[in-house]
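Complex record, two chains
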Amino acid sequence: MNVLAVLIPVSLILGGVGLAAFVWSMRASQYEDLEGARHRVLSDDHDDRPLP
Amino acid sequence: MSGACACGGLAAEMPGASAPAADARPDIALHLPTIHCASCIATAERTLADVPGVISARVNMGLKRALIVTDGSVAADALCARLEAAGLPAQPLDLARLGKPGDAEMRALLMRLGIAGFAMMNVMLLSVAVWSGAADATRSLFQLLSAAISVPAIAYSARPFFAGAVRSLRAGRLSMDVPIALAIALATLMSLAEALWGAGHAWFEAALSLTFFLLAGRALDLATRRAARSAAAELAALDVGTATRLGRDGPETVPSAELRVGDRVRVLPGQRLPADGRIVEGETDLDRSALTGETAPVAAAPGDDVAAGETNLTGALVVEVTSAGQDTRLARLTALVAVAESARSRYTSLADRAGGVYAPLVHILAAVAFVAWWWIAGDAWYALAIAIAVLIITCPCALGLAVPAVSVAASGRLFRRGLLLTTSTALERLAEVDTVVFDKTGTLTTGTPRIADAPDGPELAIARALAEGSGHPAAGALVRHARAAGVEAATVSDRREVPGRGVEGTWRGQTVRLGRAAWTGGEDDGRSAMWLRIGTETPLRFGLEETLRPGAAEAVAALRAAGCDVALLSGDGRLAVEDVAARTGIAEAEAGLAPEDKLARLEALAAEGRRVLMVGDGLNDTAALSAAHAAIAPGSGLDAARSAADAVLMAEDLSVVAEAVTIARRARTRMRQNLWLAAAYNAIAIPVALVGAATPLIAALAMSTSSVTVSLNAMRLGR
């Protein structure tokens, strides 16, 4: 069962990465305008301004 | 860009990039009703950013709105004009009425939901190992790890339930939050004790999934209410009332709320009157339909009283304000409605009723299990474990999802058809409706008349020449009719509009007049008509009728088919009302009703035990709207009517009203089904828990299957 010593930290770290990504996406207002984001991806004007 | 250097081009393209605009508050909001594609977004943002004084502009396509940060030197109207020139119609929104842009409540809830979901998945993985037979050191390691993840996650995620439970206990009530908070807290504490010292079951994943599913229910609930609230706020924000005040230094534009008694305001044709007052200069026709339901415009001359909410049609007026702001008749009636509305807010929803039965039942069952097992086994710790298992299994996980999931599906479907529910119990009350009362003007009809019968040939050409350029709705109808018939305007000189009477001109040396019967020598038979007199000939009649809203007759027929009685209550004259009733197929119609009469009719219907749905748009309907069991107002109606209603009709088509009733009925059936489904799962699981055979595995299975079943059942409605 020594493999657990590796697997458990790995699974926790991977989960933690996912959680961190989720927390970041909430903080950065990524879900504010899903409709617009769907269309913006087609636009050639690159746009990295945050939402006012 | 060929002549400019690269950095100059970059700066012109992104004016907001270098300025500290990221955290600046937007000070102008615009409504962009037609925005629909990637190039619309790009055009709007580029057009706005090119205006000097604009620091940054960002379009939110979901809300069809642009938020603009400026340095204070640009007016919203100027931005609208720029956008319109670029092919995008825009209207300014009142930011104060719009409320704050980002909803902190929703974001916090989603964050809690995400944390609970993350923790649930990880703990569930660890628990599967325990259930499949991990023993000794592995088992206790896994349980300790679960505890290390669960305790902070629950402390953070389940806080709304703990806070809600404390609030309701302080108020001396037993809400659903109490058993929920109790189950989560007890399960966590007991599992912690088991993980540290004991060898019994740990219920961490049960506590977490309970938190997760209940938070999901809350988030759905909040999402529906928020969508409705923000759309309603947007309608109100579009209604920015301004007035042209004639001050000492000439005319100035001020918000209607800032007008004072004694001010003089100019009201141009087509504008709504900003305050109550008396006409000082000018003659006109006034459209009072928003206040009284009468379609025929009323002539007004200096010395006549006018009221806020009326629309000026034909001539420019100067009005001396006699009461403004909160003292106008419009504002006083609106305030009355707000008081009357509380009656409807006492309605108890299906979820509240189910919760009212459920919360005490859960506590009683858990207490009985605890006492009985203590008495049987003589072991308080063992009895507590069983009581907690009962509490967890009976906890209304599916119950928390049963109603919100259906509401989301049903209101989403209605929203796509153009009906916006603005109160949380609207759906359930719409489902109970058995009588539907319509208003006429602005509801069944669009408020713009059309020509029913008219002479054609040269007479129509003369009439078109006279009617063109007049702001009177009847003249507009005549022009549309002539254009459709392919009749060009004749040459008429010396055209002159006489407000309150009609239009006069000279055609081949003869005086021609188009207007009211009394002025042209026509015979007034009470029906709506215009008359054309050429020289001294017998006047010709142009009959007018009201334009029905699309889908009006279909809505009436569909409501009948759904088993509802349909009636028409109007403030307009008898002939006009009978005409519309006949064309829409409504048998029961009453005319000439004052607002109080409408209210009395509705109260009489309610006293008979009828559940009435009122559909109306004007101030004369607002009292009736708020007295009705459920109410719908068209989006074109007065602000007062919209805020008295449960649902706002954003689409032109009236057939959605019938659909709303049928969808609401199906939604209610679905909610009932869901509540029974949730109860059925409990009926199976409770005996198992009571005899002490419940394991965390059974709890996890019961909880997730019931939640998923209930959500799937709700989603069938959304199609």
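Note: Chain A has one domain: 1-42.
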